[in-house]
């Protein structure tokens, strides 16, 4: 199994679920994580990543961290100072239309969104609300482009798009697609030589459907136009994703693998979860498993069955522990001396 991994955690793209997979694998194999200095949840995002943002990084020494997966704005030369040259680089993308709808709800408090009564109103005259110079403007336009380290306000010329896609291809070994999450996990498992249980997950940081809003055809088109750079990234890598499946796995085997993954997830839901699924925040009984509630979104969580044996309880708890709590637990384990 590959044990050096860089995951660019793109906002609102099922990346918290992927992070849980990396946390569990790293914990099980005693790997080191590149944590933000002082154990925060982001590597000084929205600034471009710098190696010095990592707790315990020392310039001049060989890259000594196995897994880099906290929110960052990608800058490869700096990333390379932190992880071994053998590291596998991957990220996950989401359809920019759904991404924008999700961001509007989740980042409602940001300068671009706070004064718009609805996403529709924002899209009617975005520049009435959006100021590219505002420190938090990136949440409102071409968010994936921004996370990959590029300028979200750049002109959309064929040359610029071409260079951006080439740069992403040169840096990343694999780009997953959140709409095809199970297929993505099978691909990830293949490239990392991991076993099935290592890529099993329950969806984390997802919204209650009551806070999702339907989008009209005209809104969909406006979102694509407004996030044109993101749309170019998404359509290109959605195509290469399926090309890769055809080349490396084949559709039939992929179907079998996806079935096996889903069956294992159902088994684990049966073993671990009360009611076998996610619940709204007010129904979460164990406060240590409460996900961060943000903006106007209601983020769902889980309840673990009572009376499990210790080992099973530990496994189940790990599967449903929200990102911030899990990150904090692993940080304390890796840097016990920081807590004195």
From TrEMBL:
It comes from the Eukaryota. Coiled coil: none annotated. It is a single-pass type II membrane protein. GO terms for cellular component: Golgi membrane. Pfam families: Gal-3-0_sulfotr. InterPro entries: Gal-3-0_sulfotransfrase, P-loop_NTPase. GO terms for molecular function: galactosylceramide sulfotransferase activity. GO terms for biological process: glycolipid biosynthetic process. This is G3ST2 sulfotransferase. It comes from Eudromia elegans (Elegant crested-tinamou).
């Amino acid at each position: 199994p590959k044990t050096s991994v860089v995951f660019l955690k793109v906002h609102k793209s099922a990346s918290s679920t992927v992070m849980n997979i990396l946390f569990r694998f790293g914990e099980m194999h005693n790997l080191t994580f590149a944590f933000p200095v002082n154990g925060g949840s982001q590597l000084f995002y929205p600034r471009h990543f710098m190696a010095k943002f990592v707790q315990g990084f020392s310039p001049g020494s060989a890259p000594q961290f196995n897994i880099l997966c906290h929110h960052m704005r990608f800058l490869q030369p700096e990333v390379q100072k932190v992880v071994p040259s053998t590291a596998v680089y991957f990220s996950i993308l989401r359809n920019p239309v759904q991404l924008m709808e999700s961001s509007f709800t989740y980042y409602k408090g940001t300068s671009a969104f706070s004064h718009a009564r609805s996403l529709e109103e924002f899209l009617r005259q975005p520049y009435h609300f959006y100021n590219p110079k505002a420190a938090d403007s990136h949440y409102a336009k071409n968010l994936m482009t921004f996370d990959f380290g590029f300028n979200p306000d750049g002109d959309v010329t064929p040359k610029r798009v071409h260079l951006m896609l080439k740069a992403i291809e040169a840096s990343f070994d694999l780009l997953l697609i959140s709409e095809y999450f199970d297929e993505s996990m099978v691909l990830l498992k293949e490239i990392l030589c991991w076993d099935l249980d290592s890529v099993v997950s329950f969806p984390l940081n997802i919204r209650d459907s009551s806070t999702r809003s339907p989008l009209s055809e005209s809104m969909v088109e406006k979102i694509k136009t407004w996030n044109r750079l993101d749309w170019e990234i998404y359509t290109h890598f959605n195509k290469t994703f399926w090309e890769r499946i055809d080349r490396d796995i084949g559709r039939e085997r992929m179907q079998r693998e996806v079935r096996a993954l889903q069956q294992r997830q159902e088994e684990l839901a049966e073993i671990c979860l009360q009611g076998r699924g996610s619940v709204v925040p007010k129904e979460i009984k164990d406060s240590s498993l409460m996900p961060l509630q943000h903006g106007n979104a209601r983020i769902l969580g889980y309840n673990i069955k009572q009376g499990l044996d210790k080992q099973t309880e530990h496994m189940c708890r790990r599967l449903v522990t929200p990102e911030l709590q899990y990150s904090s637990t692993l940080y304390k384990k890796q840097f016990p001396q920081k807590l004195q």
